[in-house]
């Protein structure tokens, strides 16, 4: 794998308002490492099936604005999905929203786990272990329209997800609504069904966290990313101040 590092770490700014906040961005990249051919058209790699559009930009603005840290994935979710358990269906997807990924048909799961998945999660573990009372912001984005569900409305500007621990959600939802956003509580899908990274790094060890899904057409351009970061910053700080 030529020493490729499947994650990027942004160190928190000591003395800043967000020095004990860490953003975890499982799907921040559409990069396909050397030696892997997914067998999909180049334009597919720019779509929601390959990357959480806007997440990297919002993460960087938040890190600059409030001084928080971050761990960002540097591998496309079509190569391996970091927000799945190791034995979960869809860990190495054969299809995604109706798009076939033929290059994954013969993939060796153990090789990809060893090269990308485990180093990424080890980096998250180490980053959190090095911090005192960390608060986690899990940042994702969702497409406003699924190709496989054309009649399904997705009108929310932002969704808040959680599994058993809804403490931050209960704080964040009214604040986001007050900021003028149409907020989905466990929408566009529920964290009880898809919350692997936060189950592992937040809920199991008892760390407070906020799970956020941003609507992609709101954050697919620089101005939108800045606006979303401006809205999220005081909300995340309020959750941290109450819980961490």
Automatic annotation (TrEMBL):
List each coiled-coil range: none
Q: Which GO terms describe its molecular function?
A: hydrolase activity
Q: Which keywords does this chain's UniProt record carry?
A: Hydrolase
- InterPro entries the record matches: N-FG_amidohydro, UCP029730
The keyword Hydrolase is annotated on this UniProt entry? yes
The protein depicted here goes by the name: N-formylglutamate amidohydrolase
Could you tell me which species this protein originates from?
Sphingomonas ursincola
